[in-house]
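> @MW can you paste both from yesterday?
MW: sure, first one:
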Amino acid sequence: MDAEVLVVGAGPVGSALTLMLRALGVRTMLVDRATFPRDKACGEGLMPGGVRLLAEVGVDLAGLGFPRIDGVRYRLPHRGWVSAAFSGPAFGVRRVRFDAVLAELAGAEGPTAVSTISPRRDSVVVETDRGRLRCATLVAADGMRSPIRRAMGWEQDGPACDRYGMVGHLEAPRHGRSEIEVTLLEGVETYLAPAGPDELLVAVLGARSRLHAEGTTTKELYRRLVDDAHPELAAARLNGGLRGAGPFGIRARRVAGARVFLCGDAAGFIDPLTGEAMSSGIEQADFLARQLARDPHGAAPAYARYFAAQWRRRRLMTGLARAMTGSPRAAQRALRGISRHPQTLERMLQIADGSRGLSALRPADGAALAGW
């Protein structure tokens, strides 16, 4: 065997999984087809659950200089806002640096592109452009468009929703922001997060029809929507180009079997609005690492059950967030209700982050979201 576990994909989830497995004494190899540093469209917010798990394997995000995020604010321009603090520190993690730091810590080998995989009774044989690899277990952490998910025949028929995102970074010297800020416009949302002491990430999320305008370039439309949400950033210079992502709403038919596992966005991606995808992927990595170290033969059914429960939680919380932001009228009702019952938003954030279970929801929370 070249490794007990071969992890394909050295993004945050694959690198975290590799660090976790090695900490548990499992001989693990990590490969990626990319050369780091490389950028990626992302909300770039790592929630408290993911922060805690990375700290357990020695990754100190504060020490590495990533900006802290203390909470989230939802706002309707000129019509009010609500906010809540996270259960612990979160961080803005600029992907071009964050991924490179984690990949280096995890010892990623690359660029290595996987061409075919052949699960066998006692191993998985993987053909790459750098030669053949043989492992006892293969974990695909190769992203939302996972080639390994496709090779295993675990693709779903199509995306579950017509939602896309445009992501850019704006110069904002000494901006002093420490919150994620979600601004609700007509048919779209903007998502702002600190990416550094002098830089802000601003993403625009919405249906494809809302992110296209005849006779207008993508960059012009992005700036117009960002200026509508944040007129104070109208003069801010765009650092680099825009990146796009979508459609969202991807879920694999299976996440485990035949000595192959899917982890992170390869297993499923709902919507970036709640900003919990990276943290949820790192939670999956933690569960899978412990299962593979303790009982590799029983890991597949245990992981499938865990993923199904986590997916139900994520889908429900994303559904509540989308219902709250679905229209200005719904948003105004939700903001009015949450302003009367601020603990509702606090509970939602804690459940979305995995700090609390779904049982923490109260009937009054639904009433608050409805504006009562």
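MW: second:
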Amino acid sequence: MRRHIILVGLAGSGKSTVGRLVAETLQAPLIDIDTLLMREMGMPVARIFAMHGETIFRRMERDAVRTARNSPPAVLVPGGGWAAQEGEVEAAWQSSLIIYLKCMAMTAAKRAGQSEDRPLLMEEDPVAKMRTLLAAREPYYSQAHCQIGTDVKPAAAVAEEVVRLAREKGGW
């Protein structure tokens, strides 16, 4: 039976890029939750954060993932904080193959940059902030079914691993 593929990890771990490649290879729908919320709200994530706060954004993100999980199997790419919401990984565990794209905080900060799309990194020391986020989120990310290191692998190689796991463990 086909299950959703959910990619979790820090901003900059490669979730969106890898998710797109995996969806193309599997000929599956791609649901990028940040993109979905930006389209729905008509503004970038940073503006949603500024206008409504992180708590409201996380609730919107959680609801969007739950809605997506009730649709036909797809590649789901939630934001980096989705998995750290209490109970969300556990709720998705049976219907989804959750894959943690693991990278060091320095790698994630370098890739993510100080983009307006990354509201939690818009401070003077994004590497320190990323370390703090990783320390808080790692226990949740580690609940994933599988982990793939993304520090030195190109996105295409990571996507190949995700596709292999999707076929072996996700019914694709």
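> thanks! Helices lie at 15-26, 33-41, 45-69, 88-92, 105-112, 126-141, 155-169.
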